[in-house]
Amino acid sequence: MFITDFITKVESSESYKEFIKNHPDYYLVHLFCMQPDENWQAGYYSEKEDKIVIFSGTPVMNSTEEDSFKKQGIIHPLPINEITIDADKAIQLAEQAKNTKHSAETINKKIIILQIIEQPVWNITLISDSFSMINIRIHAKTGETLRIKADSILSLGKK
Q1: Which range is least confidently modeled, 61-65, 69-73, 98-102, 124-128?
Q2: On the chain, which terminus has fewer CB atoms closer than 10 Å, C or N?
Q3: What is the value of pTM for the model shown?
Protein backbone atom coordinates (compact mmCIF):
# COMPACT_ATOMS: atom_id res chain seq x y z
CA MET A 1 0.00 0.00 0.00
CA PHE A 2 1.54 3.31 -1.07
CA ILE A 3 0.61 5.35 1.99
CA THR A 4 2.26 2.95 4.43
CA ASP A 5 5.37 2.83 2.21
CA PHE A 6 5.49 6.63 2.14
CA ILE A 7 5.09 6.94 5.91
CA THR A 8 7.80 4.30 6.42
CA LYS A 9 10.07 6.33 4.12
CA VAL A 10 9.39 9.50 6.12
CA GLU A 11 9.70 7.91 9.56
CA SER A 12 12.90 6.06 8.71
CA SER A 13 14.57 9.24 7.41
CA GLU A 14 17.33 10.98 9.35
CA SER A 15 15.36 14.24 9.19
CA TYR A 16 12.32 12.69 10.89
CA LYS A 17 14.37 10.76 13.47
CA GLU A 18 16.27 13.89 14.48
CA PHE A 19 13.11 15.99 14.65
CA ILE A 20 11.05 13.50 16.64
CA LYS A 21 13.93 12.92 19.08
CA ASN A 22 13.67 16.61 20.02
CA HIS A 23 9.88 16.87 19.59
CA PRO A 24 8.36 13.55 20.74
CA ASP A 25 4.82 14.95 21.09
CA TYR A 26 4.30 15.33 17.29
CA TYR A 27 2.02 12.79 15.57
CA LEU A 28 0.85 12.14 12.00
CA VAL A 29 -2.30 14.08 11.03
CA HIS A 30 -2.40 14.22 7.23
CA LEU A 31 -0.94 13.24 3.89
CA PHE A 32 -1.06 15.71 1.01
CA CYS A 33 -0.30 15.64 -2.70
CA MET A 34 -1.05 17.79 -5.69
CA GLN A 35 -1.20 16.04 -9.05
CA PRO A 36 0.28 16.05 -11.60
CA ASP A 37 3.28 17.04 -9.42
CA GLU A 38 3.20 13.85 -7.28
CA ASN A 39 5.21 15.32 -4.39
CA TRP A 40 3.67 13.71 -1.32
CA GLN A 41 3.91 15.43 2.06
CA ALA A 42 3.24 14.12 5.56
CA GLY A 43 2.02 16.53 8.24
CA TYR A 44 2.81 16.00 11.92
CA TYR A 45 1.09 18.02 14.65
CA SER A 46 1.81 18.85 18.28
CA GLU A 47 -1.22 19.50 20.45
CA LYS A 48 1.07 20.96 23.11
CA GLU A 49 2.69 23.45 20.72
CA ASP A 50 -0.34 23.77 18.39
CA LYS A 51 2.14 23.64 15.50
CA ILE A 52 2.54 21.47 12.43
CA VAL A 53 5.65 20.35 10.57
CA ILE A 54 5.73 18.91 7.05
CA PHE A 55 8.04 16.14 5.82
CA SER A 56 8.57 15.64 2.09
CA GLY A 57 11.08 15.15 -0.70
CA THR A 58 13.95 12.88 -1.59
CA PRO A 59 15.84 12.86 0.65
CA VAL A 60 13.11 13.53 3.18
CA MET A 61 13.43 16.98 4.75
CA ASN A 62 11.18 18.80 7.17
CA SER A 63 9.74 22.30 7.16
CA THR A 64 9.95 24.65 10.09
CA GLU A 65 7.18 24.39 12.65
CA GLU A 66 4.22 26.49 11.59
CA ASP A 67 0.86 27.43 13.06
CA SER A 68 -1.73 24.77 12.35
CA PHE A 69 -4.52 25.52 9.90
CA LYS A 70 -7.67 24.59 11.80
CA LYS A 71 -10.88 26.17 12.96
CA GLN A 72 -10.73 25.20 16.64
CA GLY A 73 -9.77 22.41 18.99
CA ILE A 74 -7.03 19.94 18.19
CA ILE A 75 -6.12 17.96 15.10
CA HIS A 76 -6.74 14.26 15.64
CA PRO A 77 -4.13 11.63 14.80
CA LEU A 78 -4.48 9.84 11.48
CA PRO A 79 -5.01 6.11 12.18
CA ILE A 80 -3.00 4.73 9.27
CA ASN A 81 -3.51 1.12 10.37
CA GLU A 82 -7.28 1.59 9.85
CA ILE A 83 -7.00 2.97 6.29
CA THR A 84 -8.04 0.37 3.72
CA ILE A 85 -8.50 2.61 0.66
CA ASP A 86 -5.14 3.64 -0.82
CA ALA A 87 -4.51 6.87 -2.74
CA ASP A 88 -4.91 5.38 -6.23
CA LYS A 89 -8.23 3.74 -5.33
CA ALA A 90 -9.48 6.94 -3.67
CA ILE A 91 -8.65 8.96 -6.80
CA GLN A 92 -10.39 6.37 -8.96
CA LEU A 93 -13.50 6.53 -6.74
CA ALA A 94 -13.44 10.35 -6.79
CA GLU A 95 -13.25 10.39 -10.58
CA GLN A 96 -16.18 7.97 -10.78
CA ALA A 97 -18.18 10.19 -8.42
CA LYS A 98 -17.24 13.27 -10.47
CA ASN A 99 -18.51 11.57 -13.61
CA THR A 100 -21.96 11.01 -12.09
CA LYS A 101 -22.70 14.73 -11.67
CA HIS A 102 -19.99 16.64 -13.52
CA SER A 103 -19.02 14.44 -16.46
CA ALA A 104 -18.50 17.38 -18.82
CA GLU A 105 -15.66 18.80 -16.71
CA THR A 106 -12.08 18.15 -17.86
CA ILE A 107 -9.80 17.87 -14.84
CA ASN A 108 -6.28 19.30 -14.99
CA LYS A 109 -5.23 19.30 -11.33
CA LYS A 110 -6.00 17.17 -8.29
CA ILE A 111 -5.45 18.10 -4.65
CA ILE A 112 -5.42 14.98 -2.50
CA ILE A 113 -5.51 15.01 1.30
CA LEU A 114 -5.89 12.08 3.67
CA GLN A 115 -7.10 13.50 6.98
CA ILE A 116 -9.60 13.24 9.78
CA ILE A 117 -12.87 15.11 9.23
CA GLU A 118 -14.88 13.39 11.97
CA GLN A 119 -13.56 10.14 10.43
CA PRO A 120 -10.63 9.24 8.15
CA VAL A 121 -11.38 10.65 4.69
CA TRP A 122 -9.71 11.22 1.39
CA ASN A 123 -10.56 14.86 0.75
CA ILE A 124 -10.01 15.25 -2.99
CA THR A 125 -10.47 18.49 -4.92
CA LEU A 126 -10.56 18.27 -8.69
CA ILE A 127 -9.85 21.50 -10.58
CA SER A 128 -11.19 21.73 -14.11
CA ASP A 129 -10.27 23.66 -17.23
CA SER A 130 -13.39 25.78 -16.68
CA PHE A 131 -12.20 26.85 -13.20
CA SER A 132 -14.59 24.57 -11.34
CA MET A 133 -13.53 22.95 -8.08
CA ILE A 134 -15.22 19.66 -7.38
CA ASN A 135 -14.62 18.50 -3.83
CA ILE A 136 -15.23 14.84 -3.14
CA ARG A 137 -14.82 13.12 0.20
CA ILE A 138 -14.24 9.37 0.18
CA HIS A 139 -14.39 7.36 3.41
CA ALA A 140 -10.84 6.01 3.85
CA LYS A 141 -12.04 2.72 5.38
CA THR A 142 -15.07 1.85 3.27
CA GLY A 143 -14.60 3.73 -0.02
CA GLU A 144 -18.06 5.28 0.35
CA THR A 145 -18.53 8.68 -1.30
CA LEU A 146 -19.50 10.98 1.54
CA ARG A 147 -19.82 14.25 -0.35
CA ILE A 148 -19.64 15.81 -3.79
CA LYS A 149 -19.63 19.60 -3.89
CA ALA A 150 -18.81 21.89 -6.80
CA ASP A 151 -17.90 25.59 -6.77
CA SER A 152 -16.22 28.00 -9.11
CA ILE A 153 -12.69 29.08 -8.28
CA LEU A 154 -13.85 32.57 -9.19
CA SER A 155 -16.29 32.54 -6.25
CA LEU A 156 -13.51 32.00 -3.66
CA GLY A 157 -12.81 35.70 -3.17
CA LYS A 158 -16.50 36.44 -2.64
CA LYS A 159 -16.89 34.26 0.48
Answers
A1: 69-73
A2: C
A3: 0.91
